Amino acid sequence: MSLLTSLTANVSPDHSAGAHTTIPASVRASDVVLTGDRPTGRLHLGHYAGSLQSRLALQGHCAQTIVVADLQALTDNAGRPAHVAAHVREVMSDYLAVGLDPERTTIALQSRLPALAELTVLYLNLVTVARLERNPTVRAEIEMRGFARDIPAGFLCYPVSQAADITGFRATVVPVGEDQLPMIELSNEIVRRVNRTVGEEVLPECRALLSSTPRLPGIDGRKASKSLGNAISLSATSAEVRELVMAMYTDPGHVRVSDPGKVEDNVVFAYLDAFDPAPEDVAELKRHYTRGGLGDVPLKRRLIDVLNDLLEPIRERRMALAARPDLVDDVIAAGTAVARRETDAVLADVRRAFSL
C-alpha cells in the first residue's frame, strides 16, 4: 500500500463525511460535479463543514472534479503571486489529509489548463460589462474590498472564468452557497448562447446544489475568513485550537454562571452543532444554558475536545504529507493531466461553435 493510499484510506468512520453528510437525493450517479477553492490560505473548519464533507460523500458516487483556482486567486492577489503559489500545495495537502482520494476525485490546477483560459476569452464576447456589474455577489465583493471604480478587470470578469470552469468539465451539478447562485445563472446564460449559435446542445446547463449546513461563523461571530484570521484551520495544533476556542464569542449578557444564556448567535454552540457527535447531549446543554447554571468554560472545554478528536487524524496525515512534498506534486500533475484532456475536448467543441 502506497503512502498516499494509506493516508486517504485510513479515515476513521467518526471523522469521515458519512458521519455528518449523506449524498443528496438530487445528485445522480450520472452527474458531473465541479467544485473548487482559491489557494489564498490553508483551509479551515468552515470549509470542512460547508464543502469538504460533501465532497467526501460524493466521491465514488459520481464523477467529481475539484479545481484549485490559482488563476482566479490572482484577480485580487496580483500583487502577491508567490503567496498564491505557496498555498497551492497547502490546499492540496488539506484535501488529501481529510480523505479526498485522487483515485476517485480528480484534483486539478487551474493555471495548467489552458483550455479554461481560452474558454474565458471566448465567453467574454457573450457577456456585457453592464451584465457583470449587475451581479449582486460581485457588487458586494467590490464594496467589501473598497475597489470603487479601480476594479481589476480580472476581478470584474471572474464569474466568466467560473463559467469556463463549469462548462470546461461539462459539469451538471455545482455545490454553492446562496451568494453564488448568480454565478450559476450567468454560466447557464452563456451555455444557452453557445448552444443557440450552433442549433444543438454543445454544452449542458448545470444546477446548483445548495448546502444544508448553516454557514459556520468565525470565532468572533463574523464570517469565518482566512483574511480576517478568525477561523480554525484544519492544520491547527491542539494548543492553537484551545486558544481560539477559549476566545470564542458566546453571549455577552451571560455574565454569571447563574444567568440565563442565549444560544442564538453563540459561536460555541454553532461549532458544537456542526461537529459534536452527540447531538442529544448538545440539545440538553442548550436547555441548561438557556435556563442558567451553565458557564461558558465547560462548554468551551467540551468543544476543544470535540475539535481535537476531529483534527488529530487530519494533522497526522498532513504531517506525513509534509515529509513527502513530491507526493503532493505527483497528485497535482496526475489530476491535471486528466482534467486537461477533458477541457481540451470541450474547447474543441466550443471553438467549432465560434467557427474557429
CATH class of the largest domain: Alpha Beta
Quote the beta fraction. Answer: 5-15%
CATH topology of the largest domain: Rossmann fold
Q: Could you say how many structural domains there are in total?
A: 2
Largest sheet: 3 strands, parallel
The strand order across the widest sheet is 1-2-3
Strand count: 5
Indicate the CATH architecture of the largest domain.
Answer: 3-Layer(aba) Sandwich
Order of helices and strands: HEHEHHEHHHHHEHEHHHHH
Q: List low-pLDDT spans.
A: 11-19
Helix content: 40-55%
> SS-based structural class?
mainly alpha
Envelope shape: globular
Count of discrete alpha- or pi-helical segments spanning 4 or more residues: 15
Any idea what the CATH superfamily of the largest domain is called? HUPs
Description of the structure:
The chain folds into 2 domains: 3-216 and 325-353, HUPs (Rossmann fold), CATH 3.40.50; 238-317, Tyrosyl-Transfer RNA Synthetase (Orthogonal Bundle). Helix 10 (181-198) links the parallel strand 4 (173-176) and strand 5. The longest helix has 29 residues, at 325-353. Residues 11-19 have low confidence and may be disordered. The strands form 2 sheets. It has a 3-stranded parallel sheet with strand order 1-2-3. Helix content is 53%, strand content 7%. The protein is built from 15 helices and 5 strands. The termini are far apart. It has 356 residues and is mainly α.
Q: Main attributes?
A:
single chain; 356 residues; mainly alpha; Rossmann fold; Tyrosyl-Transfer RNA Synthetase; 2 domains; two-stranded parallel ribbon; globular
